[in-house]
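Please go through this protein, sequence plus structure tokens, and consider how the sequence yields the tokens. Keep your notes short.
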Amino acid sequence: MTVAAIVAAAGRGHRLAAAAPKALVPVAGAPLVVHAVSTVRAAGADVVIVTAPADYVAEVAALVPDAQVIIGGALRQDSVALALRELPPSVDVVLVHDAARGLAPASLVEAVIGAVRAGAEAVVPVVPLSDTVKEVDGSERVVRTLDRSQLRIVQTPQGFARDVLQRAHDGSSGVEMTDDAAMVEALGVAVTTVPGAALAMKVTTPTDLVIAEALVAAEANRVG
């Protein structure tokens, strides 16, 4: 099976309060988008397409010369839809990865690819919740406490059989969804999970940057 990875890097990342888009913010010595592309390549992606803000396409392309860089859309799912159009016919498996989760380890990417190759039509990495979660109403009053044993935090990369992901985007009808797996779920397709990784955290705020650097340092000490 031929594997393609779509790296979503077109977001501005306003909550990070950085001068450049989030994908260009350095963590552990390199921009997040560089980490993301390097990792999916190392894990076996044959084709890599990166979506970037229109005014940063040249800069991103210079950082990841082994990837195709295109202008992203207004929404994340628009960017993925644009990237799907660029995939060669030979691609069977599609990964959708957030540059904001660029520190995700190659072993996680390999696990997602392996699950799709083993027959799963859609795969997402997940981690269990450690906090109590409560549902609230419009007045911020607690409605109920949810059973966290059945809840998971979803990460990327998410992996799909190409035809399934394409059908999901073709049938989305412009309805905004938070991830591609939700679009696939709307088709009635089963989504399989694999264990996620701490390093696959999403970098969204300045505090996340500090945590990400600490996680990288801890991992380096563990391996060393």
Summary: The first helix runs from residue 32 to 42.
